[in-house]
C-alpha cells in the first residue's frame, strides 16, 4: 500500500481551509515544550524557522553557510508569482493553479498546487510588511511583469534580485527570533545524518565545518529545507555548495525519494567557456520578455560565425531564424523552459549553433533597445547585462547575448504528503528539497513562491498537527530518555566518524572534484536534456563503476578535526554518486516524455513530447532497500478532478 | 574548448597566499606558482586550479569562502594586491576575471583584516559580527500572518528605488576590510537607510538605529572618519549617502531617545 498522501476531502477550493480547521492545535502554553530542528535557512527554511519560533516553539536552525543570509535562494533573479490580479488581466487563484498543473505537464498533485496558488497572495503581503523593496509603479503600487509560460502579469520582482530581497526579508524575520532567543542558530554546521528512533525522526547529527566536531541534536520534529540537487550534473546554475546530502541521508533512513529524474534545464544561461568552468550563470528568464532568440538560417553561415569570419551584427534580418517565434506563434519567445531548451539544443544539433563551441544560440535585444532606448533597457535588466559583460567580455547592448541551456532546478525530491511530511513521521521537507508542486516542469517565478508558501504558511499549521499528538517528554518506547547519549545518537555519530575516517584513509589519486566532474559528464550526456534507454543503461553501469573507483581511489589530505573543504566535498560527491544512479533508474522507468524528462523514443512527428497518461500518471516514489541494492518503486497515482489532462501545446 | 576570446593567451602567475591553520595559529605568506591560466577564468577558478594542484601534491588546499560565484551571496571575500575584491571596481572576487591580470604577474591574496573578523583558516574569516548587528534591530517587528494587503502601503517609486539600492548590500565585509579603522559604518548604514526610508520601518526607526550602532561598537569595529574607502571598494555600489543618513538618524534618535532601558 502506498503511504497515504493525506489529501483532505472536499472540493479543491475548500480543502485547505477545511484542513486548517481539522488539524490538531498545540496549546499556546505548551508550544515552548517542543523543540523543532530546521535544516537550511533559504527561503523555505528561513521562513519556517522564523514562523515556528513566532508561534512559540523552540527552534534550532542549521546551515552550512557562515550566515543564514547566504543560502542559494539569494541568487534568484526574476521574480515571484502571486495570484493578486493587481493588473486586472484575468488572473485568479484558479488560473495560477491551472497554469502550474499544466506547466508541470500533469505530473503534480492538484491539491498541493491549489493550496500554493491560494497562499501566494499572502506571501506578497507578508514580504511587503517586512520591508522587502519590490518594484513599484509611479503611483506607488506594486509593479508586475509576465514571466515565461504565463499569459498574465503576476510576477512581483525587485529588479533582477528578487531572491536576494525575499531572502533578506526571511533573514530579518529569523534574526529577530534569534535575538529573542527563540531560534538558536548553528552556522557552518552540516547535517550528516538524520536519527530515527521507533520509526520517528528525533534529531540530526552534524559536523561543525570550522573545527570538525561531530554533534548530536535532538528534537520533536525535524524540517529539511535543504534545497535542490542540480549539482549532481557538476555544472549548473546552482551555487557551488548546493548538494543532496541532507535529503539523501534522510532517504537512506526511510524517506521515499520522488521523481528524481525530473530536472529543469533552463534555456538562458551563459555558455561554457572552458574545461576549468566551475559553474554556469543564469541570465534571467525575464530577458525573454524582450529578447528574441535566433540562430542563422543556414549551417554555412553558422560555421562562418563560429570561425570568426563574420560578425553576428553582419547577419541580415532575412538570414536569421527566430525559431521560437516561428514554431510557437502564440507564445513565441515565452514558451516554457523545457520547450525553449529543447529547441535550442535541436538548433545546435542541426549545426546552426553559434559561439566558438557551436553550443549557443542568440538572445537579441536590438529591437527593444530601438523601441525604448538603452537607458530604459538598463533600468530593467542593468545588473544582468553587467554580469554578462563581466563574464564574457562582450557588450550585450551592442551585440546579442550568446546563451545555452543549463541545469537549473530539480522538481524531484523527498516525497511528502499534503502536510509536507516525508514517509518518516516527524520528518518534513519544504522548498526545493521536496517534490511536491511542480510536476515534471516548474514555471518561472514559482520556486520562490513555493519555498515561502511552505515556510510561512503551510508548515506552521501542519507540524502542529503532529506535535499535538507527540508527548513533550522526549523518550523512546522503552522510556529511555532521548538525548545525545541515547544509543541511536551514539551509533549515528559513530557512523559519521567512520565514514569520515574511510574517506581520509584511502589516500588515492583522484580528487573529489575530479570524481564530481566525471559524474556530471555522465549525467549531462545521458540523463540531461534528452534521454534514451540505451544511453541510460550505459550510464547506470558507468556510474556504478565510477562509484567503485571513488571508494578506492579518493585523494584527500589533512584530518577531520579541522576545517577541511575537500573532505566536505568528498562527502557530498559520495551521495551524488548514489543519487545519480537513482535518477537514471527513474528516467529508465518512465517510458514517456513529460516536462523536463524527454525520452527520445517518445516524441511525435514534430519532435514534441509524448506523454503516456494511461501508464505514467503517477509519482514515482523510490524506497531505499540497502547499499548497492535496487531501490523499490512505489507509485502514487495522480488523480485529476479539476484540470482536464490534455496535450500541452504552446503553438 | 576555446574560451569566448579565441586570441587570449594562457598566463603563468606567482601567488603569495596567506596560510593560517586555524584561528589561534600564526599565519604567513606562502608562495605558489600556477601555470596555463586562461584569461577567461574567474579568479576563484584560478584558485580551484591551485587547490587541485596542491591536493595532487599531497598538500593542504587553501581554504576560502565562496558559493554562488555570481556576485550575490556575499561569501567570497579576498583581499587581492591590497584591495578588497581586487583591482576591478564594483566587482566581487568571484566575478573578477583573470583577463584583468597579465602573464608573469605576482598576486598577493590575503583574508579580510579586521579585529571583528577573526580568521577561521587561511583566507576564510568569521563575519558573524554582521549577523549580530542585524539581530540587534535590522528588521521590522512583524509576525507571519495578518499583514495588510501589499497595495495598502503605497510607496513612491523613487523612495522604493532608493530603499532597494540600500537593500542590495550583500554583507561581504569588503567595506570593513578597505577601511583603515575597520569600521562597519557602510554595512550598518545600508540597512538603517533601507528601513528608515520605507513606511514599514517608521515605528522602530529610532530604537533600530541606536541598537544597531551599539552592537557595532560591541563587536569591536572601528570608528568612521569619513575617508570613503568603504564605498570606493563596495562591490555593489552602496553609497556614502547612506552613512550621512545613518548619522542624521542616529543624532535624531539620541536627541529624542525611545530607548527606555
Ligand atoms: C540562478 C538561479 C536563479 C533563480 N531564479 C528564480 C526566480 O527568479 N524565481 C523563482 O521562483 N525561482 C528561482 N530560482 C529557484 C529558486 O531560487 C530555488 O529553487 C529556491 O530558492 C530554493 O530555496 P530553498 O529554500 O528550498 O533552498 P536553498 O535556498 O537552496 O537553501 C538551502 C539551505 O539548506 C542549507 N543546507 C543544505 N544542505 C545542508 C546540510 N546538509 N546541512 C546543513 N545545511 C544544509 C543551506 O546552507 C541553505 O541554507 C532560481 C535558481 C537559480 C539557481
Ligand atoms: S556595504 Fe558593500 S562592501 Fe560593505 S558589506 Fe555591504 S556590499 Fe559589502
Ligand atoms: S561567491 Fe557569492 S558573491 Fe562571490
Automatic annotation (TrEMBL), chain A:
Superkingdom as given in the UniProt entry: Bacteria
Pfam families: FAD_binding_2, Succ_DH_flav_C
Location of the Fumarate reductase/succinate dehydrogenase flavoprotein-like C-terminal domain: 516-650
KW Oxidoreductase (keyword) present: yes
Keyword Hydrolase (UniProt): no
Domain FAD-dependent oxidoreductase 2 FAD-binding, chain residue ranges per copy: 35-448
InterPro entries from the UniProt entry: FAD-dep_OxRdtase_2_FAD-bd, FAD/NAD-bd_sf, Fum_R/Succ_DH_flav-like_C_sf, Fum_Rdtase/Succ_DH_flav-like_C, SdhA/FrdA/AprA, Succ_DH/Fum_Rdt_flav_su, Succ_DH/fumarate_Rdtase_cat_sf
Names of the cofactor(s): FAD
PANTHER family on file: SUCCINATE DEHYDROGENASE 2 FLAVOPROTEIN SUBUNIT (PTHR11632), SUCCINATE DEHYDROGENASE FLAVOPROTEIN SUBUNIT (PTHR11632:SF53)
Protein's recorded name: Fumarate reductase/succinate dehydrogenase flavoprotein subunit
Organism, as annotated: Hymenobacter aranciens
Phylogenetic lineage: Bacteria, Pseudomonadati, Bacteroidota, Cytophagia, Cytophagales
